[in-house]
Amino acid sequence: MHRIDCPWCGVRDESEFQYQGDATVSRPKFKASEEAFFRYAYVRENPRGWHTEWWHHVGGCRQWVKVVRNTLTHEIHVTGTPADKLAHPRKVKSP
Amino acid sequence: MSSQSNRLTKGGHINRANPLTFSFDNKIYQGFEGDTLASALLANGVRLMGRSFKYHRARGVLTAGSEEPNALVELRQGARREPNTRATMIELFDGLAATSQNRFPSLSFDFMSVNQLFGRFLVAGFYYKTFMWPSSFWESFYEKIIRRSAGLGRAAVESDPDQYDHSHGHCDVLVVGAGPAGLAAALSAGRSGARVILVEENPWLGGALNLQNDRIDDMPATQWIEAVSKELNALENVRVMSRTVLFGYYDGNVMGALERVNDHVAPPYSDQPRQRLWTIRAKEIVIAAGAHERPIVFDNNDKPGVMLSSAVRTYVDRFGVAPGKTVAIITNNDDAYLTAFQLHAAGIEVPVIADARVNPGDLVEKARELGIRVETDCLPHEAQGYLGVTNLLLQRSDGSLIEKIACDCIAVSGGYSPNVHLVSQSGVRPVWDEKILGFIPDTPIRAERSAGACKGTYDLAGCLGEGHEAGLAAAKAAGIAVAKSAVAPQAGPQPQSSIVAVWRSPGKGKAFVDFQNDVTAADIDLAHREGMVSIEHSKRYTTLGMATDQGKTSNVNGLALLARARGEDIPTVGTTRYRPPYSPVAIGAFAGHERGVHFQPTRLTAMHRAHERLGAVFVEVGQWLRPRYYPINDKETMTQAIWREADMVRKTVGMCDVSTLGKIEVFGPDAAEFLNRLYINGFAKLPVGKARYGLMLREDGHVFDDGTTSRLAEDHYFMTTTTANAAGVLSHMDYCAQVVWPELDVAFCSATEQWCGVAVAGPRARDVLTAAFDGAIDMSNEVLAFMGVKEFTWNGATARIFRISFSGELAFEVNVPWGYGEAMWESIYAAGKDFDLIPYGTEALGVLRIEKGHVAGNELDGRTTAQDMGLGRMMSSKKPYIGLPLSQREGMADEMRPRLVGLKPVDTKNRLRGGAHLVDDKNNATHETSLGWVTSVGDSPAIGSWIGLAYLKDGPNRHGERIFAVYPLKDEVVEVEICDPVFFDAKGERLHG
Ligand SMILES: [Zn+2]
């Protein structure tokens, strides 16, 4: 039951967003190797704790929002735009 | 009508001026306003209220609250019949009808109680063991017996006639429970100005406060509760929600709550919902959920008449009901003495207080002064009686019998278990407190704090003080300035109670731990002997605590017995984790209004009413309703209508609503470059005023979507997508523009519901449209050639005409602003009268495109490549695009992949079926020998037989060969000839007409 602080719209209910997965992978340049594209398309970490992920504000401004979320506690640390470099909190909260 | 033989002459918080009539098992009784079904039945001397789950043992009410495991009844009748309703939570209303459940043929004579004789088959893990036996045993005997005998009430078979609502609540401080601690918390937080929601599952406030004996702030409890209630209701920042249970604690400090808006009145309800599901988001939470008394485990401790001591007290104090004429008391702590005193004051005989402790303390003297016999170092041996208690056998802790006490009710107290359900749901592991023999919450993880009995504080002054402090702390944490001078409600001191552990009073009979799931002490020992050493395994194997009561009265006894079997202490064994829901929640409450047609929106095109007038039969396409076909009269079948519509398009002309296609307007200097990267084919060199078919891949190289995209200006494109993928394509474009290539200067937005469209196809299409638009647009080959696009003005609105064809005929698609859609349909339809125009639906559209070998949703199934579809030649070698790198993988272009072909039945009378599998040998049709599958089929007027599209291994190299289409669901095998997927007008001459 998240509330996500969209950088464009402000704090909104989770139901307005669509989870879009891992934001730590970025699309390789077209000239990159097949292996690089394979990793981009298929290989994902499954971290326990802080994770940077995409939440598409599909029921709002339609912007892709970067969210640092704890996969264990569901806590959201910070949100930002695709261009933002978002740091994880230093100390990992345990349940 | 029976008299209320066990109603006390005075006392109780009931309205004796308002008698209510109700029935239980078709027998008519009377109770009072303020009763529960349980208290009213007890008032009428009814002790037997149900039969147990597994052994069909006679059961009476155990508790006076939501933790009730025994007294489960079917409430109401017909479509409103609700099984497994707790008699202790049902507020009595006039005309209430309840029936007992899980008995056959009657409650007092239950045939299935013979299950007790088969008890050795129904021990711990019996489900697992029974399944291990020969299956013939299972089918012929055990399933029948178990189905008949296990399981509880019957659900209604009709659909639920009631309405359920959803609501959201927001507050600074959410207080869980309106007992003394919760009320004190709500007061201190509310007085400081915090936005407070106080939630109480009962219809009244006060929790376990004793109405007759407790005093707060020098007032009797009833008066104090009234004063607090008045003050809270007067505070604008406080909302009190009674009849509401918090059933789940979720992340984000959100709690789920169920408000029983109209369960306490006879249906039919007013225009209000029956129940309301709340999502309450709280900055801070105070949990004041109280504690559950637990029974002592002794032989036959489940006989009707055996009740928790606190419940006995509540029935006397709150309801003015004597649970029995002679009430024996069994305890291991001080609390049961309060019950004895209350019974004594009400004039009910208490023959004995059997106290397990050797040196109980001061209350013994007080009891003896009242003339009540107290036996110390004394344990129950066995409850006796047939359908209810008649005797209690007492023993010493060494097992030596003392004597038999005649009684019709036994009040038991095995101590209290703090209610740690919600806090455990938040992830906090409860920790064992040896002083109170109960689990209390560990350090909070979320923004919550516990107060009062739910953290093991049982004295009234302590509860009030903790509640007060918790309310202040919560308000402060929520950012509210709190006055330092605030004072907690005051109550007199109470002596410290001692408690001694009695987990299993010695005995060899059936001694129940979990009443609702019929789990005995012996079951837990057996499970342990069979290797279920972990509490989580023991729970699942014995089903202890897995009934709808969530083991509220049984969990601690159960794990204490497991600890005993393991020879370890309770903290080592630990407790299981509680999960939502705390109390059962009807599925209807979760569904709310979102059921039937309201489950999701229905999208109608602008021309929907025109289709209705033409008698269209509709089909759901996602959320859209589209005309499937237009029968000309009652006699025309679907097959006939589809055939006729497809035939007429090729012979004269047809019109079809294509508004549901996804439409996206794309603008900007980099629009061309952007589309070039999305599609496998090029769009940068597409001239203005031209359309092009485009195909896009997913990043993994498989086909994502297709559609026609037009260039309306140098920096303006108009894209279409399939109906199914409209949302997905737009999200994909958002990602590409915002995340992958933010440097591209491009903007786009969905225009699906801004433009509506009609396709007009057939040899007379141009004639019809020229008449319909009264010459507003020149559609000649010279001005509007194949794949040409023009804008024109029609009735003052901008219209767009696209010369594109899905059917392979001379065809146009015309888009106008959504609001003009119906008028445009009518204009074209009227103009078509002179040209034998017919409207056609999605089915004929399908037949026409199959005849032309055009791929659609069935072929774009997410597993296919452009090469598989025969569209590999579209893949540009001059530019990179999404999906290109991974589409180059070896396996993606393998010729032996299933690739698109056409199929015709060798015997033209045979029909084809979508989903059929293709094999070379019809006698060897298996998963392994399958060479592909049929994707789309249609009865083709142009070809004169059924035709189909299919994916077939190495298909394009097998044209002319014969194979078999097998369809095991209908046991059909059809010999088919493989052919080119383009069945009709392979040269494409007709669309240039
Ligand atoms: Zn937004």
List the defining traits of the structure above.
heterodimer, A: 95 residues, mainly beta, Folate-binding fold, four-stranded antiparallel sheet, two-stranded antiparallel sheet, 1 helix, 9% helix, B: 993 residues, alpha+beta, seven-stranded mixed sheet, six-stranded mixed sheet, 49 strands, 22% helix, binds zinc ion
SS elements, strand count of chain A: 6
Helix content of chain B: 10-25%
Strand arrangement within the widest β-sheet of chain A reads: 3-4-5-6
Q: Which class of secondary structure composition applies to the elements of chain A? A: mainly beta
Strand content of chain A: 25-35%
What about the largest sheet of chain A? 4 strands, antiparallel
Classification by helices and strands of chain B: alpha+beta
Mean pLDDT of chain A, rounded to whole units?
93
Oligomer: heterodimer
Under CATH, the homologous superfamily of chain A reads Folate-binding superfamily
H and E order of chain A: EEEHEEE
Percent helix of chain A: under 10%
CATH topology of chain A: Folate-binding fold
Describe it for me?
The complex is a heterodimer of chains A (95) and B (993). With 95 residues, chain A is mostly beta strands. Chain A has one helix at 34-42, and strands spanning 3-6, 10-13, 18-22, 50-56, 64-70, 76-80. In chain A, the strands form two sheets. Chain A has a four-stranded antiparallel β-sheet with strand order 3-4-5-6, with no helix packed on it. A two-stranded antiparallel sheet of chain A has the order 1-2. In chain B, 22% of the residues lie in helices and 27% in strands. Chain B is built from 23 helices and 49 strands. In chain B, strands 8, 9, 12, 13, 14, 15 and 28 form a seven-stranded mixed β-sheet that branches. Chain B has a six-stranded mixed β-sheet with strand order 40-41-42-39-33-43, sandwiched between helices. In chain B, β41 and β42 form a beta hairpin. The A-B interface holds A 1-3, 18, 20, 26-28, 30, 32, 34, 37-38, 40-42, 54, 56, 58, 62-64, 73-75, 82-83, 95 and B 250-252, 254, 279, 281, 427, 445, 699-700, 727, 730-731, 734-735, 738-740, 742, 880, 884-886, 888-889. The complex binds zinc ion. Zinc ion (ZN) binds at residues 6, 8-9, 57, 60-61, 63 of chain A. Zinc ion is lined by residues 6, 8-9, 57, 60-61, 63 of chain A.
